[in-house]
Each structure stands twice: as C-alpha cells, then as structure tokens.
Amino acid sequence: MSRRRLRVCHECDLLLALPSLKAGEKADCPRCGHTLVRRHNNPAERSLALAIATLITLALSVAFPFISFDISGIGNRIELTEAASTLIGLHQPLVALSVLLTVIVLPAVYLLSLTWLCAGLILRHPLPRSRQVARTLRHVTPWMMADVFVIGTLVSLIKIMSMAHIELGLSFWTFCAYALLLLLTTQSVDRDWLWFSLDQEPLAPAGARVGYSAAEQGLTGCHTCGLVNRLPESGKGRCLRCDEPLHPYHGVGSQATLALLAASVVMYLPANLYPIMITTSLGETLPSTIVGGVLLFIQNGDWPIALIIFTASVLVPVSKMLALLWLCYIVRRQHHSLNRLSRIRLYRITEFIGRWSMVDVFVVAILVALIRNGSIMSIEPGAGALAFTAVVVLTMLAAMMFDPRSIWHGAAPDIHADLSSPGPHLQSKESNHV
Fold first, then answer.
1. What share of the chain is helix, strand, coil (3-state, %, to 5)?
2. How many CB atoms within 10 Å of residue 264?
3. Is the pLDDT of residue 30 over 70?
4. Cα–Cα distance between 18 and 177 in angstroms, integer?
C-alpha cells in the first residue's frame, strides 16, 4: 500500500493511513476514538484572523481598568497585570509567575507564533524559522488558562459583591472576549495541514504495515508534526521533519507519573492545612483554608460558588490523583475490571480537568490585588497558595507523563483486515463520533 499519509495514533500506538478529508471533516482512530486530524475551510486565513482578533482583545485587556470596588467611599481599582504584580510585592513570586504565564505571556507567545506561521503560508513563502516556531504551539497549548481565569474572576466578584459596590471596567469585557477567541483560535489550528504546508511530508519507512502497533515495527509517530519515523538502534532519536525528540513506546512504565503524583500528594497536605489567603477587616485577621472558604460560602447561602470551589480545589485534584494512581496500577496488572475504551476515556477526563483547579489560585490573585485598604480591609496570600499552585502543576505534569499507549499494551490488534484498505475504514465524519 502507499507509504504516504501514514499516522500513528498517540493514544493506542496503532499505525493508520489517513483518508482524503474535506473541510469540516475529521479522522478518528477506529480502535480508541482519538482524533487524528480535523480539517477546516481556509485554515491559514481562518487561524490568522482569529489570532489577530485575540491579540487585539488581549492588548485592550491589559491597557484598561479591569475591576474596581467601593466600600463607604473607600475602594480600589486594578488592571489585569496587577493580579500578578501585587503577589510579587507580597513575596509570592512563584504564584505571580504562574498567573502571569498562564493568563498573558504564554497565550501571547502562542498567538504571535501562529500569526507568524499563517502569514508566511498565505504569502506562499514560509517566514524564517517557521519550523522552530511551529514546534512551540504544542508545548504551550496545555498551559493557557484564560478561560479558567474568567471563572476565577466571577467567583471573586460574587465573594465581595455582598459587601462592596463593584464596577466592571472595559478590560473585564474585552478579557471575556479574549478568553473565548483564544479557545476558538486553538481549535482552528490544523497541525497536520500546517506541517504539510511548511515542509512536504517524506514517505513513511518501507515495510510499514497499517493496522499493527507501530512499536512492534520499530516505528513511532512524532507527537509534534505526526510524521512516522523509524527508530534508531539506540531507541532515541529526533523527527526527520520537525527535529523534535521522539517519544517511542518502550512498554509499560509509570515511574515518572508515580513520582510526580507522590510529590503532588506531599504538597496537597500543606495546601489544605495552611491558609490559602488571610483577610484583615477592621484590624481583625482571619486566615482561610480551602475547605474553610467552601464552608464560608455555604454559611452565606452561596451554594453554587461553594460547589465550584469544592469541585475545583478538592474534588478535581483528589479525583485526578486517584484516577492516575489507579491507571498506573491497572496497566501493570492488566486487570480487566474496566475495558480499555473506558480506561482511555478516564485518562482523557483526568488530563482535561486538571487545569481547572487553578480557579482557586486565580481567585486569590484577584482578591489580593483588589482589596488593599490596610487595616480597614485587606487580603494577603497565605502559604497554602504556593502549595496548591504546585499541586496543580504537578498533577498536570503527571497526566502528561503518563503514556496512554500502555493502556493498550497486550491488546490484540483485531482490526488488521479492516484496515487493509484504509480509505473507507478510517472513517471521516462531520459528527463528533466515528
């Protein structure tokens, strides 16, 4: 069969051949359901327009006032960047850095990189260092959290709305538009088309057989550009097209995930035992832990907000740690209490929900920046804020280090015959499911 347009599913390691796709269609792996490729109309123009619009809304969000409040003639007004700069002044530089990177810096890097790439493709002459720029997109995407910051802002507003007059600045509304446009921009990028346009795709290694595991054939797919590469004898190498380090499957191994989970468990204890923020009101100081904040919302009758904070700060991180521990156990024992499709769905859920735990960190950042009125009323970050930020980062890294291909270790590739003619069997549909 043809050695062109072969792909390795990154979640089950099955070697597949892409069908011909039209705009609005996608190709999913027939074994695990992972989306390999998704096509769009005018992909370069579409992504460029969205990226420029998102950059404009980001610039407006930084330039104008974000939120202001007033209590009996005493108040404060902040800009978006003060959510990070105030934390630096209160000796929390790592928390400030995490807020600044996830909300402003990394999204800006992503948008500028995408603008650079799309402009070159529209001009039919890729701009200098386009391949190096394109490599950054995959690494930056998981750490952009503008949408999570919007939820954190809303929680913060509800928390202080009952005791102060709140005024939303122009920056708040442009930031909401920025978060929505950023989400649309990331979904508009067709990485397969992008890399094919930047650098024509070499033929897959000779002898590659679709419908079989790539690792069994000494092959691996590049996680950045998708090219199928033959592994060198050393077992390590770089992609022939994008020069990214290859990540071949070497069998079940979860030591890195377990180590990161152990570190996150250690950090989760001080994150809950120490106060995440300290409130001073009329000279009286009141420390507040994560659970204490949830109970306070319940006492005030704010059940929806209490549920959001409890879910993001307690239920999500604990569930994610337990789910990853269970997956690490089950792939080693090859236990069959849950089928492989259910396991891979559990992994996708744990990978998706981890970033939403940052809601509590963003709530602290906003309240600390906004409420700065000395002994009358002020809020400072507690020691638990840094510990909880570490928990979020460590659990996200643990999910990234877990290799979902180990879930399919030992699975019989019972679809060989179905894939001997790839076009009609690796289906492409406009619906959400194959």
1. 55, 15, 30
2. 23
3. yes
4. 35
pLDDT value, residue 101: 95
Query: Would you list the DSSP string of 345-403?
Result: HHHHHHHHHGGGGGHHHHHHHHHHHH-EETTTEEEEE-HHHHHHHHHHHHHHHHHHHS-
For residues 284 and 381, the model is more confident at 381
Q: What is the dihedral of CA 318, 324, 325, 326, to 10 degrees?
A: 110
Instruction: Decide if pLDDT at 417 tops 60.
Output: no
Best CA proximity match to 371, nearest among 308, 274, 278: 278
Burial of 158 (0-12, 13-18, 19+ CB in 10 A): middle
For 387-393, what is the mean pLDDT?
Answer: 94
Determine the pLDDT at residue 170: 92
Whether residue 430 is predicted with pLDDT greater than 70 in this model: the reply is: no
pLDDT in tens, 300-309: 777 877 888 8
End-to-end CA distance of the chain: 23
- AA identity, residue 123: L
Sign of CA dihedral 336, 337, 340, 343: negative
Helix (H, G, I), strand (E, B) or coil at 428: strand
